[in-house]
Write a structure and sequence with these properties.
Elements: E1 4-8, H1 15-25, E2 30-36, H2 46-49, E3 58-60, H3 63-80
Length: 81
Protein backbone atom coordinates (compact mmCIF):
# COMPACT_ATOMS: atom_id res chain seq x y z
CA UNK A 1 0.00 0.00 0.00
CA UNK A 2 1.21 3.51 -0.76
CA UNK A 3 1.37 6.38 1.70
CA UNK A 4 0.70 8.85 -1.10
CA UNK A 5 -0.20 9.24 -4.76
CA UNK A 6 1.15 11.91 -7.08
CA UNK A 7 -1.42 12.87 -9.70
CA UNK A 8 -0.53 15.18 -12.58
CA UNK A 9 -3.83 16.86 -13.42
CA UNK A 10 -2.42 19.10 -16.15
CA UNK A 11 -4.22 17.43 -19.04
CA UNK A 12 -6.47 14.81 -17.46
CA UNK A 13 -8.15 12.16 -19.53
CA UNK A 14 -9.05 9.16 -17.39
CA UNK A 15 -7.51 10.42 -14.16
CA UNK A 16 -10.59 12.34 -12.91
CA UNK A 17 -12.71 9.20 -12.55
CA UNK A 18 -9.86 7.12 -11.11
CA UNK A 19 -8.83 9.86 -8.67
CA UNK A 20 -12.39 10.33 -7.38
CA UNK A 21 -12.61 6.59 -6.67
CA UNK A 22 -9.25 6.54 -4.89
CA UNK A 23 -9.94 9.67 -2.82
CA UNK A 24 -13.39 8.54 -1.71
CA UNK A 25 -12.34 5.01 -0.77
CA UNK A 26 -8.80 5.42 0.63
CA UNK A 27 -8.61 8.16 3.27
CA UNK A 28 -5.27 6.86 4.54
CA UNK A 29 -3.56 7.66 1.21
CA UNK A 30 -2.52 11.28 0.73
CA UNK A 31 -2.95 12.68 -2.78
CA UNK A 32 -0.42 15.18 -4.11
CA UNK A 33 -1.99 16.87 -7.14
CA UNK A 34 0.42 18.69 -9.45
CA UNK A 35 -0.37 20.89 -12.44
CA UNK A 36 1.69 22.79 -14.96
CA UNK A 37 1.43 26.57 -14.60
CA UNK A 38 -1.12 28.03 -16.98
CA UNK A 39 -3.50 25.07 -16.71
CA UNK A 40 -6.61 24.70 -14.54
CA UNK A 41 -7.99 21.58 -12.83
CA UNK A 42 -10.98 19.95 -14.52
CA UNK A 43 -14.41 21.38 -13.71
CA UNK A 44 -15.40 18.90 -10.99
CA UNK A 45 -12.01 18.89 -9.24
CA UNK A 46 -13.57 20.80 -6.32
CA UNK A 47 -15.44 17.59 -5.43
CA UNK A 48 -12.25 15.86 -4.28
CA UNK A 49 -10.28 18.90 -3.13
CA UNK A 50 -12.50 19.16 -0.05
CA UNK A 51 -11.09 15.94 1.41
CA UNK A 52 -8.36 16.65 3.96
CA UNK A 53 -6.06 13.96 2.54
CA UNK A 54 -5.99 15.73 -0.83
CA UNK A 55 -3.18 18.26 -0.51
CA UNK A 56 -3.31 21.67 -2.20
CA UNK A 57 -2.50 21.66 -5.92
CA UNK A 58 1.18 22.30 -6.60
CA UNK A 59 2.05 24.24 -9.74
CA UNK A 60 5.25 23.56 -11.64
CA UNK A 61 6.96 25.43 -14.48
CA UNK A 62 8.30 22.42 -16.31
CA UNK A 63 9.40 18.86 -15.91
CA UNK A 64 12.81 19.93 -14.54
CA UNK A 65 11.11 21.45 -11.51
CA UNK A 66 8.94 18.44 -10.60
CA UNK A 67 11.64 16.41 -8.82
CA UNK A 68 12.46 19.17 -6.34
CA UNK A 69 8.82 19.91 -5.62
CA UNK A 70 7.94 16.28 -5.05
CA UNK A 71 10.94 15.60 -2.83
CA UNK A 72 9.86 18.48 -0.57
CA UNK A 73 6.27 17.18 -0.39
CA UNK A 74 7.36 13.62 0.30
CA UNK A 75 9.64 14.85 3.08
CA UNK A 76 6.69 16.73 4.66
CA UNK A 77 4.48 13.64 4.47
CA UNK A 78 7.12 11.35 5.92
CA UNK A 79 7.77 13.70 8.83
CA UNK A 80 4.06 14.12 9.63
CA UNK A 81 3.40 10.38 10.08
Amino acid sequence: MSKFIVADITDPKSIPQELVTIVESMPSVKVIPIIEKGFEPWGMYDHISKYPWVLPVIEYNGKDEIDDILLKQIYKIENSC
